[in-house]
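Collaborator request, handled under Task 6.
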Amino acid sequence: MARPGAACPPPARRVMVAARALLFWALVYSYCGLCACIAGLRLLWSIGRRPGETFRWVVRENPPACLNDPSLGTHCYVRIKDSGLRFHYVAAGERGKPLMLLLHGFPEFWYSWRHQLREFKSEYRVVALDLRGYGETDAPSHKENYKLDCLITDIKDILESLGYNKCVLIGHDWGGMIAWLVAICYPEMVTKLIVVNFPHPSVFTEYILRHPSQLIKSGYYFFFQMPWFPEFMFTVNDFKVLKSLFTSQATGIGRKGCRLTAEDIEAYLYVFSQPGALTGPINHYRNIFSCLPLQHHEVIMPTLLLWGERDVFMEVEMAEITRIYVKNHFRLTILSEASHWLQQDQPDIVNKLIWTFLKEETTRKRE
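C-alpha cells returned to the collaborator:
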C-alpha cells in the first residue's frame, strides 16, 4: 500500500504537467523573441553600414562542375508511393552491395558526403540523400509536413524503395538526429549506426534545459520558430551567414582541416540561393518542440559516435552521456582539432574510423 503523499493525486499531477508545459513554451517563445531581436539589430547594423550590399541576393543559375563530378556517383530519384514525394540522391558503388545510407545536416545537402561517397563505394552501395525539403528533393509547403514522424518514415520508405531491408546508417548534425530516431523506431533496419556531432536526442533535450550555455549555442532552434524572417536573414549580403558558417574562424573548418574550396562554397550557394530553397530545411526545426521528448530511448545496435571537439554548436559533454542509451557496443571518438563539419573537416580520419568500426564484430558486447 502506498504511503500517504507518496504520489500526487491525478488532478494535482495534471496541474503539474500543465504548469511544466506552460513554462516550457514560455521559455521557447521568450527565447525566440530574444533571438529575433538580436537578428533584427544585426540587420539594422548591416543596413546602416552597407545598405546596397545588405539586400543583394544572387540566384546561381548554373551548378558548379563539382556537383556533376562522375567520381562522386550517379544522380538518381525515387518517388515514395505513400507520401508522393520525389527524393533526390547520389549513389556510388554497385547495386546489390550492402547499403550505406548517408543523412546530411543543416545547412547542407548530399554534397557534404562527397569524401565518403568516394571512399566506401568499393564495398558498399553508398547513397547520399537530399532530405525532405532540401536540394532537388520535393519540398512540401506546410510546416506540418516536416514533423519528426514524417522524416523518420521517409528513411524507412526510401530504404524499401531502394530494394533493401537494412543498412549502415550514418547521419551528421540534424541528419544525426534523424538517424538516432530511425535506429530507435526501426532497429531491424539498421545493422550499424554512425552519428557525427549529434548526441542521442534524449540527451540533447535534457541537457539543453539544464545547461544555459548549450541553450545559447542552440539559439537558432528557437529563432527558426519564426515565419519567413530566418530565411530572409540567410539571404542578407548574398548569403553571408551561409558562407560564414563554413569559413569563419568561429564556426568554420579550422586551419588544420580540409577547408572548402571556392567551388565547394559555390555548390552550397547554388543550392540554397534558389527561390524558396531555405524554407523546407528550416521547417524541419519548426516542429521539433512539439515532438520531443521521446517515449522510447534505447538504441540496440552497435553505435559509433564521432565528435569534433571544436564544435561551437554542441557541447562535447553530451557525447559521453549518450553512452547510457546504447544497449550494445558503443564507441566514442573525439577529435580535438575538428569542427562541427567533421566529415568534411577531417575526411581521412573520419573514413578510417568508420572503416575500423564497420569491420568490428557486430556481436561484440558494449564496452
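The cover message to the collaborator said: "The first strand starts at residue 74 and ends at 79. The chain has 15 helices and eight strands. Please let us know whether this matches your experimental observations."
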